[in-house]
Amino acid sequence: MVRMSELVVAAIPAGIGLGLGLWTLVALVPRFGAPRLGARIAPYLLDVSPEARRLARRRAVEPGSVIDGLLAPVAARARGLLGGALGGDAAVEQRLRQAGSPLDLPAFRSRQLLAAAGGAVASIATLALVARTTSVNPAVVVVLVALATIGGLLAPEQLLARRARARLARIASELPTVLEFLTLSLSAGESLLDALRRVARTGSGELAREFGHVLARVGSGVSLPDALTSSATLVGLPSLTRAVDQLVGALDRGTPLTGVLRAQAQDCREDAKRALLETAGKKEVAMLVPLVFLILPVTILFAIFPATLVLQLGF
Fold this sequence. Notes:
It is a single chain. Helix content is 82%, strand content 0%. It is built from 12 helices and no strands. By secondary structure, it is mainly α.
């Protein structure tokens, strides 16, 4: 059995990192000479030529593609195990859509795995530094590493839920203004599709972006009521879903849209007022904390300290 010194143990990962770095730099160097004729025409012959399909599937020899090809099956298996252990894939997909994230479910699960691995590595490195000066109980090490791994695993999902709630709150605050703008456009003689296009073009909020997605689906061949209903279902905001249902019903029945949109805008403003009152009621107890523990002691201190000082000076 060959003994390895600490220098050799540290040199092995350093050499591997140096090799990957040099390989990456070489892969980024532009190739000299024009690509061959077969590689240029292969994308246009994929449906008739097996050789063209083979050329199109060929990947560049770089660290990223090689490592991705080696670890892709393992990562897919790990994502499946993670989804089975945590569950709630439908809820995560809903939150991704509500947060407006460009990630899909596999990419988000991969990010969770990377965060868990980063938490484990960071905790191990920190404990290794602490162990150089003081002795650490192995049970404590195991517990801390497990907690860091679990924290890294759950942190992306908590951040995603927070982003989704913040975006839904912005959409809810923008909804009455957007509905009134649609009412104004319809009163001016525009169709509903033109009014939505105007909102998506001139608006800069989250709801304007959602209407942009709706218009993109309409441009691809989906009917306007189906696109609106699908967007409202994916967002999952009750006020938006109610407004879209009323709007789609008015389109089906031929009811004037101006009155429907104006009524929905008023309802949204009333819902915002009720939500504000509910939030104030919930925060009432929390508002007592600075009053009882900060303002009241300072007030008592200012009232008692001068009298105490006068009594001490008098005696």
